[in-house]
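Bench log, entry 3. Co-assembly request; chain sequences pasted below exactly as received.
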Amino acid sequence: MATNTLRQPLSLRLASGTFLAVWCLLAIFPIAWIAVMSIKTPVDAFAGSFVAVLTGPATRAGGQGLSVLDLVLGGAVVIALTRWAFTGLPGIVRRATPAGWIALGWIVAALLYLALFGLVVLGVLPQLLDALDAVAGPLGVPVIGATFEHYYAVWVENAFWRNFVNSLIVTAGVVTVSLFVGTLAGYALARSPSNLAFWLLIAALIFRALPHSVLVAGYLPVFINSSDWLAPIFGEAAPTLYGKPYAVIAVLVAINQPFTIWMLRSFFQNIPTELDEAARVDGCTHFQAFRQVIMPVMWPGVITTGLFSFLLAYNDFLVTSLLLDAQNQTMVPAIASYFNRETTTTDQVEAIAAAVSITAPLFILVMVFQRQIVSGLTAGAVKG
Amino acid sequence: MKPRVFAAFVAPSLLMMLIFIAAPLVSVFGQSFYVTQPVYEQVEVETCTPGFPTANCVTETKSQPVFDAEGRIETRTIFVGLDSYRNLLQLDRVGGYLASGDWGAILNVDFWAALRFTLMFTLITLPIVLVLGLTIALAVNNAVKAIRGPVIFMSLLPFIITPVIGALSIRWLFIGDGILTVALEQLLDRDIAMFAQGWTIELMMYFYRVWHVAPFAFVIFYAGLQTVNQDTLESAIVDGANRWQRLKFVVIPHLGPLITFVALIHLMDAYRVFEEIVGFSSQSHVISLQWLTYDFLQPDDAGNRAISRASASAMLTMIGIVILLIAPVRRAWREHKGVR
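Structure output for the full assembly:
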């Protein structure tokens, strides 16, 4: 659209540019700010001026800080590693994995990469930089206060890693089960024009609108007393469902189903029906056609829907806080115990460090899967 | 697709939804008419205090819980009809306030306070989200290609952040002498305590929700803007339509279905407002309908959960959802019949 008539006056372009800049600042400021606060001592984190929080004089006075050398060298290593993940890594994965195993290859690669990243950034780099700072003279003197003691306190002393493992179990379970169940239903709904299919979708829409507390009010008494009413089936070994991660997985999968089948249905609708018909002509049953012809071209849709299932399970507060007990608590409800007891400012900064820890995986998720998230958001809306 | 094949494909998903969504709904409806209480028995207890010449003995009847064989408190479930609803709505109190003209006092009853906030929250954030989302989409569409990717990346962050954490991150900017409170104080030259009164907390909640949802509206509208018919736009220019008229008569009608979609999703989600209450710890000032149910479900000091009242408040919350969904479902049904 290069026509001159559509060219905009400078003032309009300027206004729209300024507006975008303000919006971007607004969008990232709260998140970036808690990240900055989490690496300062409480005095700096809750200081009144922007400069004091950013540079952290009290933290620096405590002898903890980053020198110019640390910033330049450490920053360079982190940026190089991140760039390599997007430029070098995909090629290696593609070459090293046999055809058909690409998904598994990526999972292994992601884990190995995380291990490497952790080893370099948390293990080797600090040692190396400490040694270099000692001999670098003025370049080695701390200029910006930074301390990782709150992260250490949260993850090691308060055993936040337990909650992390619980979150991992719940989210992994929810994503796997809801994709498995959802793809089957989504495929059938996309291929059937019957009234039944329509009413199923409408029921799903209504279920999606339900407040989750309504459902939990139904589960709670049943789950707490489950050892009584399951006794006829399981005998003595009848479990109490309350506090069990697998019960929460089942609940979250069900809560997630309406959304999952709507989204998967719209992705399946984009796959031409001629593909099924060709497979059927060649003698496939419906299930074989689904498994061997449709699923291999559905991966983008499955990944996108999986991302949104992950977000729902990972971000959930209400269901997990009511249905899990303290031993099996996931990360998000666990953080409530921090800000409820925030008696000292150190507690508060530890809560902030925990919050940043919870946000970090999501940040990586957006970085890697931005395209899929956008396509998932628009899939439901634009195509009806 | 034959019905049997269809059923086989849908069965697992349907089963999950029936067991974990439909069945709990029915059971919540049932629970709301029953109350489970510990069984109390009347016991005559004679307590004597030493006295002269005779001990002072008082006989009184006390009620105490009955224990079963395993030493657990025995409970009994009784039908109470609409009592839980009455407890929640407190219609006689509300009637009294109405009669005396003291309208504001209705908000002393938790349920009505929660309803007031939930509705206001939903209706106030809706137009702001739509307008802000559309403005960002137009601005990004206007920008050079190179910066669109980074802008979308930054915009997605508030959207995918865990709601409780998002609310907390804004709370930490304002709490006590937080950085933005100090900035505001300097700007307005007065003392500000953002967490001391209800309305400032509410303002932060509106801000948080708009911040959290506007990216969603933006992405949807931005996708819609890519498909605006350029020919129509150009003929509008030939006809002498100015920028504003083109937006009003070409772009916005094109985005119509998307605006309805975003509005519907936002209404559903905002009506469920809950995480804000937790994140801002606002329960002593502002509560929402879903938080009310959540609070009843939390064990109290004695470890009891008010299941019956929670069920009643859950059912009342549902009424709003039903009202909200009648219109879109009817529309979808008409379209479905039209398509076939």
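The two ends of chain A are 27 Å apart (CA to CA). Chain A has three domains: 12-64, 65-145, 159-382.
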